[in-house]
Every structure is written in structure tokens, then in C-alpha cells.
Amino acid sequence: MGTVELSRAMWIKATMQFAAEETTRYAIVNTSATTSDIETYATNVVSTYGVSTTNMTFSATSSATIVSITITYTFSTIIPLLSIPDISLNAKSQLPLSAS
Q1: DSSP 84
Q2: Above 90 in pLDDT, residue 77?
Q3: What is the distance between the alpha carbons of residues 17 and 42, in angstroms, rounded to a whole number?
Q4: Which of 42, 55, 92, 97 is the one with CA 20 to 30 A from 73?
Q5: How many Å apart are CA 1 and CA 68, to the nearest integer?
Q6: Closest by alpha carbon to 76, among 9, 4, 7, 3?
Q7: Structural domains in the chain (count)
């Protein structure tokens, strides 16, 4: 049972990291996107892979030179017999918008 939960946590973490990286690429191509647009895009990418975004927090920042997205999630086991404490999962991606 523990292996299943560990695998699920790793899958969610990998999906979050992929979404963060895809979202920064999106922001580079769509320079007129607002931080709200960027956060919505990240939410959609995570959802596409079947991960629930209910307890996820998406935070985007964008300046004239850098775009950054951070995704956080508190992982809880779905198997009641395991007494594993909640685990905080984080993913972040940051890229420059232009070569300086």
C-alpha cells in the first residue's frame, strides 16, 4: 500500500513540474498573457493529466524580463490504513522573457 501511495505522490509531483515548465514556455510565447491567464493555463495542464487541482495553489509572476510559476500541493494519502503525515509538494519554473 505504501508503494502505491509513494508512486502516486511521485506522479503528482512530476505532473506539477511538467505543468510549471510548460506554463513558462507558454508565457514566453504569449507575452501579453496576464498572471491570471498564466495560472489558468497551468491549471489546465495539470488537469489534462488527470490530477485534481482542488487543493493546488498556482502562483505566477511576470516582469519585463522574467516569468515564474510556482505550484504547491498538500499530498494526503487516500488509503486510511496508512498513518503517513501530509506532504507538501512544490514545483517551480522560471525563465527569462528576453535575452539581456
Answers
A1: P
A2: no
A3: 10
A4: 97
A5: 36
A6: 9
A7: 1
Q: Are 19 and 71 in contact (CB under 8 A)?
A: yes
pTM value surpassing 0.90: no
Secondary structure letter of residue 5 according to DSSP: H
Give the structural domain span for 74: 2-96
pLDDT at 99: 58
Q: Three cell numbers at 3?
A: 508503494
Question: Residues 38-67: pLDDT tens digits?
Answer: 999 999 999 999 999 988 999 999 888 899
One-letter amino acid at 27 equals: A
Question: Grid coordinates representing 45?
Answer: 495542464
pLDDT digits (tens, 9 = 90+) for 80-96: 777 778 899 999 999 99
